[in-house]
Specification:
Helix content: 40-55%
Radius of gyration: 30 Å
Number of strands: 11
CATH superfamily of the largest domain: NAD(P)-binding Rossmann-like Domain
Largest sheet: 6 strands, parallel
Shape: elongated
CATH architecture of the largest domain: 3-Layer(aba) Sandwich
CATH class of the largest domain: Alpha Beta
Number of domains: 3
Distance between the termini: 21 Å
Strand order of the largest sheet: 8-7-6-9-10-11
Structural class: alpha/beta
CATH topology of the largest domain: Rossmann fold
Length: 401
């Protein structure tokens, strides 16, 4: 086993599995982008096949010098930053346009731009790849408890809930006022509704109210005061609802279902693609994201995905989004430890809840699966690395055979 260091970065162990090395000198793959994580997973898999994998980082000038070395057979650009991926791809195509190039991307708009600039680049859409596997895990974990279609309505927006409570209170107050008006003044139902509405809106009393009994005056005063308070609360809730993004509705595709749904915690690129994939398969979804200004939250309205704002490791928030009635919980944030914390919190609220965790660090994935037994584990980095290795070997094997 040997190791090598480039001018600008660390290199993985080489020729870990000499039996898999093709005849002649082994192929060499240069890995650019983020250090650790996915790059390490790809490096480990390539070395098992006898392909030398070198990870380089640094300023563009140093990377250009590294790329210019004639020994490389392929380049892989691995980063979570699509803008950086685009920049590194342009660097590779400028310095070594003849080299086979693979790049991981999340954003479709960047994908279109990249194909226009470098049509021959091989793109691995990591969000779609991971989301598809996570969706398979979610449906397998949920089993027959998953909802295909919508069941009931769950109110997850505070302003909407306040509107409904205040509106219901106003309606109940009006009913009480109508009943006491009919009883005390002997008005017909239509007249009672008309005059009661005017009274609660503090416009005018019903004709003859000044001659009614004391009990009617006291009761009418009480309903008027209650209606004024409820109307103020209702108005405040409406203003709050209209002044910010409306992430859920009572009707339509963004209605949060009451039960049998998949709770997706983390609404980044992977969470967004997962919610889309589950909806495409006819499964009810509620997404949970702590940052209301996250880019994918703005896309949820057009995609018809209900989103609640809050932390996935908070018990009260999990109760609000229906962890007790959901078919499964999918913790798919970009932070492995946060996903583990979400799994622990969900299990604490509802013992035995079906869980799917997205993990990128192989060590964390192995420890979580062996020690905590939280649920189904999707090692995102290993999944992407396997796809990249499959595509790289199809290109490199013939040259090294």
């Amino acid at each position: 086993m040997s190791a090598e260091r480039t001018q600008s970065g660390e290199v993985y162990e080489q020729q870990a599995d000499t039996a898999a090395t093709p005849a002649g000198s082994p192929a060499r793959v240069l890995i650019l982008g983020d250090e650790g994580g996915l790059a390490e997973a790809l490096g480990r898999r390539l070395t098992r096949l006898g392909i030398e994998a070198s990870a380089a980082s640094g300023p563009d000038g140093v990377l250009a010098q590294t790329l210019a070395q004639p020994s490389w057979d392929a380049v892989a650009v691995l980063t979570h930053d699509d803008a950086r991926a685009l920049r590194l791809t342009l660097l590779c195509t400028h310095v070594r346009p003849e080299l086979p190039l693979w790049v991981t991307l999340f954003d479709h708009s960047i994908l279109h731009q990249l194909h226009e600039i470098a049509p021959r680049v091989n793109v691995v859409q990591t969000a779609e790849l991971v989301a598809s596997r996570l969706a398979d895990h979610c449906l397998a974990a949920a089993g027959p408890g998953v909802t295909h279609g919508a069941r009931g309505v769950r109110i997850v927006d505070d302003a909407l809930r306040l509107m409904l409570i205040a509106g219901g209170g106003l309606l109940a107050t009006l009913v009480v006022q109508v009943l006491i008006t009919v009883a005390a003044l002997h008005d017909g139902l239509i007249d009672a509704v008309y005059y009661s509405t005017r009274a609660l809106a503090t416009v005018a009393d019903a004709p003859g109210a000044d001659r009614a009994g004391s009990w009617f005056k006291l009761a009418s005063t009480l309903t008027t005061v209650v209606s004024v308070v409820l109307l103020a609360v209702f108005t405040a809730a409406v203003v709050r609802r209209l002044s910010r993004s409306r992430l859920t509705t009572l009707l339509g595709p963004r209605r949060a279902v009451a039960r049998g749904h998949i709770l997706v915690v983390g609404f980044g690129q992977v969470g967004f693609r997962l919610a889309q994939e589950l909806r495409r398969r006819g499964v009810g979804v509620i997404a949970l994201e702590p940052d209301v200004d996250a880019p994918c939250v703005r896309l949820a309205r057009r995609a018809g995905i209900p989103v609640a704002v809050g932390r996935g490791d908070d018990r009260s928030t999990l109760e609000l989004v229906g962890v007790r009635r959901c078919a499964a919980v999918a913790a798919v944030t970009s932070d492995d430890l946060v996903n583990v914390a979400v799994g622990l919190a969900a299990t604490d609220v509802r013992a035995g809840v079906p869980l799917v965790l997205r993990l990128g660090d192989g060590d964390v994935a192995a420890e979580t699966e062996s020690m905590l037994h939280l649920g189904r584990i999707c090692d995102a980095h290993d999944l992407i690395a396997r796809r990249l290795v499959d595509e790289l070997t199809r290109t490199l094997r013939p040259a090294g055979a």
